[in-house]
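Narrative of accomplishments. A recurring question from our advisory board has been how the design workflow behaves on a single, concrete structure rather than in aggregate. To address it, we present the structure tokens for one chain from the evaluation set, followed by the sequence designed for it. No filtering or post-editing was applied between the two.
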């Protein structure tokens, strides 16, 4: 006996490839979004907004010009448009604003100015720094020389006046008497000193105007810096990196959505949620196969999906009622003997139901009927989905009177008048009909109709309405020998599955299991411990089906037995009542 489970069972690793395949639209959307953003945010061609190389060059006054040159003056001139225009001209570049964006200039001290430039390569960065340095040195030196020449002209005019004053004082000194000359001597000396000072300034300015006022200090310092996606020299490289980034974001988003999506997609998840074994896994079909107007088992007999339906049939024959596994129609009986045989051994009724619409219920009925017909059984399909009857579409039968008219009493009581042949040998159909009455009221006569239907085939399959959307299927359950639940991968939540399991447990009708449709790849090892039903707690041989009187128990019974409240009864297992305190 298995030990009782405690806590949360370990979860098997997710199939990442299946997750990515499921969310492929999200991956494509993230990749395209990253591609568009990368295209809009990155410049075209080989242009860059911040390069991978950084160069610095320092500028200081020449020797002897430190008193007349200040860094703030040079900074003001270097930041002007004249220097940028001269640098662009030297580099033969027309985009002047682009050069401005690639250089910064700042005063490192009162005697030093520093240019910083960027570029995609060391050569381009060095050439730009050299061009700005040369343009600043030449331009400022020319401005300084022009200012010096203006000062020289002013001082020369001043010196000429001073020279006239000295000449006049010297003339007066020579004519003066010996007693007056000592009085004129201080004036003459002062005038000569003033003239000498002016001439000295003129000489200094003349020397200053003939040389550069500032000079480059040392060599250009070039260093490589780390680039970014947007600074790559090639737009193709940038867009390629953007695609990779978008794809990575899409993968992360897909895995996060997969974690948050609790809908049932795997075998283990379905078994644990429904508390029932999955007896068939139907792979996801292509859109072309889903559009077929006949069962896949007949249209594409070698397709993996058709083989999956045959596997479901075989499992249903082994686990279903004992009358289902019997070969009632061996082909050697005449019609009278066949009728007598069916009266003695009525055909089993299999109710195919689902919790929600879109769970592949009608498709499963059509293919399961075709698969059973391949074994030589005569199959009768009853379309009891009175809201959206679609069985006639799968079997190539036109719409017309059917179960709705039969159950409402509008047609003759003979089923032969309503049973119609199909495009599948061995399969007949009673369509849903044209119902105008409230669907729930039609199933009141279902017991009598199904009793008579058992005599017209070896197996009777019923297609019903979704259990969670309508009460029709729940009213039909009491007349069935076994139930097959279908679920489409990704269409049902664990809460909805638990509700279906709870409703079925109250009926006491054997449940064959669950058919999981639309699976992508293998869904993993079956977790038997996840099943809490009696049949899941240990392997045991198939037992006879429930007695007919137990299956036909009136709907008005007061309560289901204690074993029914623990979980749905599996088809082929005896319904043995247990007390509430008894262990399984």
């Amino acid at each position: 006996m298995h030990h009782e489970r405690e806590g949360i069972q370990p979860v098997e690793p997710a199939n990442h490839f299946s997750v990515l395949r499921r969310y492929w639209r999200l991956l494509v959307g993230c990749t395209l979004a990253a591609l568009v953003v990368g295209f809009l945010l990155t410049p075209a061609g080989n242009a860059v907004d911040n390069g991978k190389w950084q160069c610095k060059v320092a500028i200081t006054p020449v020797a002897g010009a430190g008193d007349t040159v200040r860094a703030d003056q040079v900074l003001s001139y270097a930041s002007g448009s004249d220097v940028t225009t001269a640098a662009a001209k030297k580099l033969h570049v027309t985009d002047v604003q682009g050069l401005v964006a690639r250089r910064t200039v700042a005063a490192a001290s009162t005697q030093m100015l520093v240019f910083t430039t960027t570029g995609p390569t060391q050569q381009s960065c060095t050439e730009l720094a050299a061009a700005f340095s040369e343009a600043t040195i030449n331009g400022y030196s020319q401005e300084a020389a022009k200012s010096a020449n203006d000062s020289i002209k002013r001082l020369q005019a001043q010196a000429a006046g001073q020279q006239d004053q000295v000449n006049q004082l010297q003339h007066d000194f020579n004519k003066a008497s010996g007693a007056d000359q000592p009085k004129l001597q201080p004036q003459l000396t002062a005038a000569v000193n003033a003239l000498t000072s002016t001439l000295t300034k003129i000489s200094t300015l003349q020397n200053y105007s003939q040389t550069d006022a500032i000079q480059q200090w040392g060599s250009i310092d070039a260093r490589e810096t780390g680039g970014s996606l947007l600074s790559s020299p090639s737009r193709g490289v940038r867009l390629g990196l953007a695609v990779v980034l978008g794809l990575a974001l899409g993968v992360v988003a897909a895995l996060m959505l997969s974690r948050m999506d609790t809908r049932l997609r795997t075998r283990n998840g379905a078994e644990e949620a429904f508390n029932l074994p999955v007896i068939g896994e139907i792979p996801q079909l292509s859109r072309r196969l889903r559009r077929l107007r006949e069962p896949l088992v007949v249209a594409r007999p070698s397709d993996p999906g058709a083989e999956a339906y045959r596997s479901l049939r075989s499992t249903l024959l082994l686990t279903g009622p004992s009358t289902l596994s019997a070969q009632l129609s061996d082909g050697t009986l005449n019609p009278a003997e066949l009728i007598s045989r069916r009266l003695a051994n009525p055909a089993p009724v299999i109710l195919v139901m689902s919790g929600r619409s879109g769970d592949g219920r009608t498709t499963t009925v059509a293919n399961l009927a075709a698969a059973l017909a391949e074994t030589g059984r005569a199959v009768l399909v009853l379309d009891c989905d009175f809201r959206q009857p679609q069985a006639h579409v799968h079997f190539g039968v036109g719409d017309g009177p059917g179960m709705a008219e039969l159950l409402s009493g509008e047609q003759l009581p003979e089923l032969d008048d309503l049973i119609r042949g199909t495009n599948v040998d061995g399969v007949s159909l009673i369509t849903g009909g044209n119902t105008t009455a409230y669907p729930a009221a039609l199933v009141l006569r279902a017991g009598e109709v199904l009793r008579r239907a058992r005599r017209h085939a070896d197996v009777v399959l019923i297609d019903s309405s979704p259990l969670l959307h309508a009460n029709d299927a729940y009213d039909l359950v009491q007349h069935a020998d076994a139930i097959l639940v279908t679920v489409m991968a990704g269409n049902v939540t664990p809460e909805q599955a638990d509700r279906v399991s709870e409703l079925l447990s109250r009926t006491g009708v054997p449940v064959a299991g669950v058919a999981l449709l639309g699976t992508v790849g293998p869904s993993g090892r079956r977790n038997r411990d996840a099943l809490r039903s009696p049949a899941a707690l240990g392997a045991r041989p198939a037992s006879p089906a429930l007695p007919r009187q137990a299956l036909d128990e009136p709907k008005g019974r007061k309560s289901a037995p204690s074993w029914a409240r623990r979980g749905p009864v599996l088809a082929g297992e005896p319904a043995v009542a247990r007390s509430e305190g008894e262990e399984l």
